[in-house]
């Protein structure tokens, strides 16, 4: 992984000068969605790229060691070996970018992956996920214990109360504390855009999160009513670009929630390529938070390789 | 490097290239062309007419390959076509509004079915065409077809209308004239540019299939705009309207001068438009959109990027990032490439810095999108833009300067402004002298938005309700009978010596003054002309100043000083001033009646009646002041679309001989009620009533210089008006030669002309009647439209 974003001092100027014209952003989103997607082997290559960027996720109340284990095994071999071999991609280290679980399941995931000799990182959500409405001390404690259990990536959620009431500096300070608690673990900051009301707030929250040293900014928890949408993503990507222009640091982007089809994953890749360039199309700067997406991508690849549409049972479950 | 089909998944996985674009299929269009043996005839009287003996021209695609052939129409084809259109007009105009609307609506269904073929064919001919936009156009005007007699009562279709376009005009701008013409009940002869000919022919066939009676829509093809002139020459054509590139439009106007047919042009291709980014803008969106506008779309206009100084670095940084991902754009030809190279070199020599995605390939018709930073209004790349992906970038300091920079160009087609500040947006929109303002957006077209270029941008309003009136005339007016062309030596017109006024001690006729800049005065030359008594008995009623070029110049200068202030006044303030003028006329009614009686020889009773009518006419215009208004337009998108009527500026009026007082106040009222200033030339035959009116003007509270009266010889003054670029419009009642001279001369800049030849037969205007459509026609001639589009989420 390249150098991390160290963050900057809090600068209200960067937050307050922003202007976002919603209709122009919507129009841009529409034009991205209207672009022609890659076909044939280009599509396969892009889909495999999407696979390598997936944070394969399970975040349910009924998660147990056994389904977490299944998830980890799927992460190691996300696409059937024979399909990869047909494309000559079987020895190119295709795996998902990470597995993402609740803090209490981190130990299980780490154990499963270690047993399989895999170096796939384990990511954990933390800080009172998904609402973030718990005391600061317990949120910090959650981060520390996940790191202790072996998580190397932490997905924190921001305190929406601070964002909605305009207390940007307080939010900055909180995220700074989380970043310290993460230590060497990479920090992805979830903005929960579905609850930020306006695109201007999305931009401001993105900027504050980056100034506070986030390695990634992430759209949503997947638990809000509105999740990763393209207009919101455009605003966040522009914030990433603006931060890069100001500081020279590259911050990653992770859309999450509601991304289910191979088609959508291609649009996401197109969007990143258009807005930030191919440089960002790598797991260290782009992640897709998803659970059921992988199955659809594998089906698409199956079709591209064999010309047939697969039945569900033909592809290994997660 | 591996070929595209053998590229391995792993290589793509590493490079993340997008791969080749899937080739677009044109199977349907090819099949249609094959069905016509790849040689398209004319579309006359509802069917294709293919004559083997006509010269054939090839239509080329973007790569220079032949798509198909079209024929060159000759004299006989034009007359056959015109004859068919004349008879079709009779039946088409007799149909009910409902029946006409139904045909247009049926075409919506037909286009839904065959839109694919149309867009493929347009693409083959290197034309942009989106069937959904045509469908919207048809739906919009089909409702106007239905409502013509309800909402536009008092208006009648013209007859056979010719729609001419140049090679580079789009299918949409062609149909933006054809559809409203048909909707109002006219028959149309389309003379398309070569590349737009195949889609136009296909559309004509589809119209016919939708139930449009044979002959109502005809298409004639030819090599260039001379065919348009040939069509204009045909005596059954009532109106010629043109859309496309400016040089071709001007050639058409000049070549058809003297044919007695009105010609209007919308030179929508090739104009320069400002793209203004204020510091209060969503800079990221603005940068994305300017790239889209300048480099991605096949653009009909040239953009100039104007950025507020305080955010210039921000904009430039983002432009650099965004341009990096763009590929080279293909140019039309090698010749264009050398023009682009020259323009870039010139700009660099003047210190411009370049932002490019990659350096230009050494040769060939390809060029990378390029921003020329540090351009200025004086830069050659701004004044005469090269045909390539070049975007000059200028900076401005404050809001006022943004407007000044945006306005300081002969073009007045459109502007895009970017700010989140509503007040600033509306103020800027108001002050920019362009026809379309797009706030936080660009290049938005819709049939409900009137397109009316200001300044040197054309003489025609297309689209919206406003665009209908070019295809209508007030039912009360009779169609002017076309006279045969008069020969004219343009360089000699209005130059003949005036007959000397010989001093005659026996009679000492009174000498009058003209009215310039709010002062009654003599002419600059000091010469006078005699006013003849009625009946041509040779008696001299008086001497009036012989105004010339310098008098007109002084009048225009005075008018220009006060016109902006007059336009900015509230409508009710203008109404008050006009009411005061009415009072002035009432006070001088005796003098005015006497002057009418003396001048025209009508009885005192008749003269008093005319004065009375003039008083009510002026009062009518006073009342119109706050009734001439725009409104919000029904855009099918979220946001607000507004239209505003704006004054033209300074209008030159050469007054009619008929009803000299009444016609004068009618035209004067129409002009100043809507905010214009006027320079009036009284009828040479009957100047006295207008001269008598000067005393009314003197005692009025109109700003000095708003109304000027320059007396003298008509032809000489016509030449003076024609050659003053500030005058935006001339309303002319006079000789056929004068009409011809004006149409030929008033092209640089283009003036809006209303020409009436009053020789021979009756000119067809009954000034005493005051039907609503008659008055509406007058005020619509005195305004230009501005549309403002403010999209919202």
How many E-type strands of chain B?
Answer: 33
The total of helices of chain A stands at: 13
Head-to-tail CA distance between termini of chain B: 46 Å
CATH-defined architecture of the largest domain in chain B: 3-Layer(aba) Sandwich
Query: Which outline of chain B best applies?
Result: globular
Helix content of chain B: 40-55%
CATH domain class name of chain A: Alpha Beta
Order of helices and strands of chain A: HHHEHHEHEHEHHEHEHEHEH
Q: Segments of chain B where pLDDT lies below 50 for 5+ residues?
A: none
What is the third-level CATH name, the topology of the largest domain in chain B?
Aldehyde Dehydrogenase, Chain A, domain 1
In CATH, what is the homologous superfamily of chain A? Aldolase class I
Seen as an oligomer or otherwise, the chain set is heterodimer
> In the residues of chain B, how many domains can be counted?
3
Query: Number of domains in the coordinates of chain A?
Result: 1
Derived structural class of chain B = alpha/beta
CATH fold category name of chain A: TIM Barrel
